[in-house]
User: Fold this.
Amino acid sequence: MVSAGAGQAVDEGADSDPVIRVRGLENRFGSDIVHHRLDLDVRRGEILGVVGGSGTGKSVLMRSILGLLRPTGGRIEVFGQHLRDADDVREIMSHRAGVLFQDGALFSSLTVLENVELPLKTHRQDISTQLRRDLARSKIQLSGLPDSSSAKMPSDLSGGMRKRVALARALILEPELLFLDEPTAGLDPIGAAEFDGLLHALHRALGFTVFLITHDLDTLYAICDRVAVIAERKILAAATLRDIEDLDHEWIREYFHGPRARAVRDQTSPPG
Amino acid sequence: MSDPAQMTEGRKDDNEADLVWERGTEGLLLATGDWVLDNVELLSDRVDALAGLASGLDASGISRLDASGALLLERLFHRTGQGPTAAGLRQQWRTLFEAVDFACDDTHEPAPASEAPWRQILERMGRSTVEVVHSTHELLGFLGITVHRLLRTVVQPRRLRLTSTVYHMERTGLDAVPLLILLSSLVGAVVAFLGATVLRNFGAELFVIDLVTFAFVREFGALLTAILLAGRTASAFCAQIGMMKLREEIDAIRTLGLDEIEVLVLPRLIALLITLPLLAFVATISGLFGGLIVSVVSLDINLVMFLDRVEQTVTLKHYLVGMIKAPMFAAVIALIGCLEGLRVSGTAQSLGEHTTLAVVRSLTMVIVLNALAAVYFMELGW
Assistant:
C-alpha cells in the first residue's frame, strides 16, 4: 500500500479505510510526465505532510484530488467514493472538504465576514442570516483573528491574517478533510510557527484529516503525523518522519539531513 | 402556555439532534443527538426558545459535536451559567468545546451596526474630493519634476536614453498608424455624410468639403489621435511602469543611483511629444480622405473640385491651431500614464485600478484641454 523507495517497506500500518486513496495516478502535460503510477493513502484523522522538490508535482497531485485538474489516468477515491467526473468531485468536495490555497484566494470584493459565510450561504440556505453570521464570526475567532477584523476587506489584511481568514472559510462547513497548499509560505518564522500551532490545536479539537503541502521543515517536524515524499514521478515513501529520515535516497538525504533539517530536528526532538 | 417539549417531533433517525425541557426533572434541559452543522438551524431555535426556562443542562446525550454545535452549546452554558463538567459533556468533546469557548468570547454581543447611509454618502463624497485635490497636486508636482529633468537633459543631451526613446516611438507611434488611419477615415466619412444630409436642404452640398476640412484640420486630427492614444498608450505606460513597481524594479533603479523619471518617464514623454503630432497629421489626412471618398461616391463632387476647395479653405493659421494642441495632448497622456504607473502599490488589483484611472484621467484631461483651446482660439478670432 505504500510505495517505498528502493523496495524498502517503510510503513506497515495497514489501513482499510483511508480518507483519500490514490491508485496508479498518471498526470502528463504533452510529453512531460509529472506522475507515473502514483499511489497514496491519507488516513482518517492524520496530518499528512507532502514534500518534494520544486516542480515534482505536489500541487498537481492536490489539484487532481480536488478535481481542478483531470488526471490522465488512475483512480482517486475520497471517503470511499470513486471520483469519476467533475460532478462527483463537486458533490463530495464542496461539502466535506475545505481548501486553503497558497495566498488564501479570498474574494477581494467581499469583506472578511462575507468571505467566510459564503460557503454557508451557498450550501446551507436553511440557516438564518443571524445564525450564519454568528457561525462565521465564531470561525473567524477560532482561526485566531479578533472579531473586529470581520468588517475588513482582504486587501487591508497582512499575509498571515489572510491565511487565517482562508482557514476560517475552509472550516465553515465543518469539513472532515482539509487541503493546505504551503500554508506557511510567505510568513515570517514567528507567524509561521503561530499558524502551525493554530492548525495543530484546531486539528486536535475538530479532528479533521489534513493533506498538507509544504516546504517548511518546521511545519513537518511540528505537526505532521506522516510525511509523503514525492520524487521520481511517484510517492517515494509515505511514513513517519523517523522512518523517512532513515531512507537511503539522494533527495531525502539532502532534504532531511541538510543543515536546515538538522537544526530543526535538534530543536524539536525530545531529549534522549 | 404550550409546553415547549411538545414541539419535539418524532425522531426520524438516530442522528437527529434535540434539546428538550424535561418537566419532571426540576427544569433540566436535555441535549441529545448530533450537535453538528446539519442540525444547527433547529438547535439554534431550541436554544433561543428554551434557554431562559431552565436552570440546568444535561449534555451527556450529545453523541457528536462539531464547532458549529459547540458554539450553540457555549451559548446555552452562557445562559444557564453552567460549565461542561457540570452538564456532563462527554470527555471526547471537551477539547473541541474548550477551543470554541476560548475563541468565541464576544459573539454574545451583536456585530457593530454599520453607519447610516447618508453618512456613508457624505464620507464617500469627502473622500473623493480629497482624492481629486490630492491627485491634482501630485500631477502638478510630477509635471514640475519632469520638466526639471527634461531641461537637464536639454543641457546635457548625453543623458537622453536614445534607444528607449526610439523604442517607445515605434510602439506608440508606428504601431498605432493602421488603427488610426482606419478610425480617422471612418469618422471623416461620417462627418461628410452628416454634413451632406443637412446641407442638401440648402443646396450647399459643396460646403461638405469645408466642413470636413475645418473639422479635421482644426479639431479632429489632434483630438482623435489623442483619444486613441489615451486608450492605447496611457494604459500601456501605466501597466509597464506599474508592473516594474510591483516587481520592485523602480526601487532597484533608485538604489543603483539612477533616476526613474529620467530612465522611464522622459523617453516615453519625448517619444510621445514627437509621435503624437505626426500621428495627428496622419489622422487629418485620413479624415480628409474619408470625406473625399464620400464626396466623390455619393455627392457628385470630383477629385479636382475637392482638392481645389481644400486648398482655398485651409490656411496655415487653421493648421497651426490644430497642430499646436498635439504636443499638449502628448504631455498630458504621457505624464498621467507614467504617474499612475508610479502610484501602483502592492497588489495586482492596484495595478488594474491605476490602469483604468490612467485612461479615464488622460481622456478627461484631453477633452477638457481641447474645449479650452477651442474657446481660446475662437476668442482670438483665429
